[in-house]
From TrEMBL:
This is Sodium/glutamate symporter. Belongs to the glutamate:Na(+) symporter (ESS) (TC 2.A.27) family. It is found in: Cell membrane. GO terms for cellular component: plasma membrane. Keywords: Amino-acid transport, Cell membrane, Ion transport, Membrane, Sodium, Sodium transport, Symport, Transmembrane, Transmembrane helix, Transport. It is a multi-pass membrane protein. The keyword Membrane applies. Pfam families: Glt_symporter. Catalyzes the sodium-dependent transport of glutamate. HAMAP family: GltS. The chain crosses the membrane at residues 6-22, 34-53, 65-86, 93-117, 123-146, 158-178, 227-249, 292-311, 318-337, 349-370, 382-408. One of its GO terms (molecular function) is glutamate:sodium symporter activity. GO terms for biological process: L-glutamate transmembrane transport.
Length: 409
């Protein structure tokens, strides 16, 4: 049976909530911050692969809307790239952002070098570098077709597997590293009645720090509906104009992922709005729309996953991933910890750095919360890490990956 594009999106939505249900029942999935779209999508992929091995094809999907949803998500990342927000965060945000960007490059150099040493295409190593570790499943799935076109067979399956290993390891390694830094250096902080569990996460930080206030709805219009409508239209306009920008920038010698133009246009709109206040962009609503698009994009991408393509590449991939985990662990000890101040807050930031450089911002937040529940508050860490992990690194990482893709032709 073949589902049309609406039926495919509806099926993806059902599978998404299946993922939420499974994560609620299977506690380790929640503890390691495995995204619900990944859980649901992989369940369907496993079922389809099993039936396929028996000569059956139960479902075929129309994934026409998969790419637009992916572009929509990365467009919302562009809206988060606010220079004003960087200024609010201060020099430490800039330094932490610079470190994350620099070591995204190092991840790719390490991966490409190991892949070449094992007789594989260097881009195989890049795919198991910053694409899926710093970038996570969304970036991996977005870039997979480009890597496939460059000669990396099974790029989508490799991307998902690498991202899942990174998420698990980001959750396992981060808190112990921060604990070791605290204990070894005798670092402590005074406890207060309020813990970091109450600290706003990334989107809330934006509104709290920038005084983000939504536009005033016209008379007779519901304010929440108006803000949602305006946000959706801004995203669509950025995607529309961004399509022209991508087409203008693209060339046979320098390939860009389809969302780069939209991301750049969104960043221009955001920073123009910071200066003029014309749109009064609500980053919280933009993020909500982006997260919805991301969830459906990931589910649709995983439902068509070809798991059988992974068999011959599992060994080399695990070697590269083991080296990547060791790299990030060492980097957190030096130079991240000393450069960020060599104090308690720096140790907590190091745990967060592990989280989003191997997994996702959710891993980073979970690592830091585990530390502050034991040792006490770290407000500076909870300002710096979400800003970089949730907003800025995705923007520069996309440019880093594009550079590597075009270098290893």
């Amino acid at each position: 049976m073949k589902l049309d594009l609406i039926q495919t999106v509806a099926f993806a939505g059902v599978v998404l909530f299946l993922g939420y249900g499974v994560r609620k029942v299977v506690r380790p999935l929640a503890r390691y911050n495995i995204p619900a779209p990944v859980i649901g999508g992989l369940i369907v992929a496993v079922i389809i692969a099993t039936l396929r091995s028996r000569g059956q094809t139960p479902l075929e999907f129309d994934t026409t809307l998969q790419s637009p949803m992916m572009v929509a998500f990365f467009t919302t990342i562009g809206f988060a790239a606010s220079f004003r927000l960087l200024k609010v965060g201060g020099p430490q945000v800039l330094l932490f952002f610079g470190l994350a960007t620099a070591f995204a490059v190092v991840q790719n150099l390490l991966g490409a070098g190991l892949a070449a040493a094992m007789g594989l295409h260097p881009l195989f190593g890049v795919l198991t570098g910053s694409v899926t570790l710093t970038g996570g499943p969304a970036t991996g799935l977005a870039f997979a077709p480009l890597f496939e076109a460059k000669g990396v067979t099974g790029a989508t399956t490799i991307a998902v597997t690498s991202a899942m290993v990174g998420i698990v390891m980001g959750g396992v390694v981060g808190a112990p590293i921060a604990t070791r830094l605290i204990e070894r250096n005798g670092l402590r902080t005074a406890r207060s009645g309020r813990t970091e569990m109450d600290t706003p996460v990334a989107a809330q930080i934006v509104e709290a720090q920038l005084g983000d206030s939504p536009p005033t709805a016209p008379a007779g219009e519901d304010e929440e509906s108006f803000v949602l409508l305006q946000s959706v239209v801004l995203i669509l306009v950025a995607m529309w104009v961004g399509g022209w920008v991508s087409a203008w920038m693209d060339s046979p010698s320098f390939k860009l992922p389809s969302y780069i133009g939209a991301m750049l246009v969104a960043a221009v709109i955001r920073n123009l709005d910071d200066v003029t206040g014309w749109f009064r962009v609500s980053q919280r609503v933009i993020d909500d729309v982006g997260n919805a698009a991301l969830a459906l994009f990931i589910v649709m991408a995983l439902m068509t996953l070809k798991l059988w393509e992974l068999a011959n590449l599992a060994g080399p991939m695990l070697v590269i991933l083991a080296a990547q985990v060791l790299l990030i662990a060492v980097i957190c000890m030096w130079p991240v910890f000393p450069l960020m101040g060599r104090d308690y807050e720096s140790a907590v930031m190091s745990g967060g750095f592990v989280g989003f450089m191997l997994g996702t911002t959710a891993n980073a937040m979970a690592n830091m919360r585990a530390i502050v529940e034991k040792y006490g508050p770290a407000p500076r860490a909870f300002l710096v890490v979400p800003m970089v992990g949730a907003f800025f690194i995705d923007f520069t990482n996309a440019l880093v990956i594009t550079g590597f893709v075009n270098f290893f032709k």
